[in-house]
Amino acid sequence: MRQRIRKLIGTVFLAVFVPFYALVAMTVAAAKLPGTSVLTQTLFFAIVGLAWVIPAGAVVYWMVRPDKSPPSPG
What we know:
about 70 residues; about 75% helix
């Protein structure tokens, strides 16, 4: 797959994934965190706020991979 196509696919994926992830994180927080301590809430939002970077980084790494060069004749 050419890099240009990977970038298009990766950009669309990230544009859908990040808002979806944020909505899921907010829903979980609203359902599970009321009544918990400030420390628990802070830890939850710190972990969840940074966790999206791992899959996004993997997608970006995949997107910027150079194209495979065609086999040289001879």
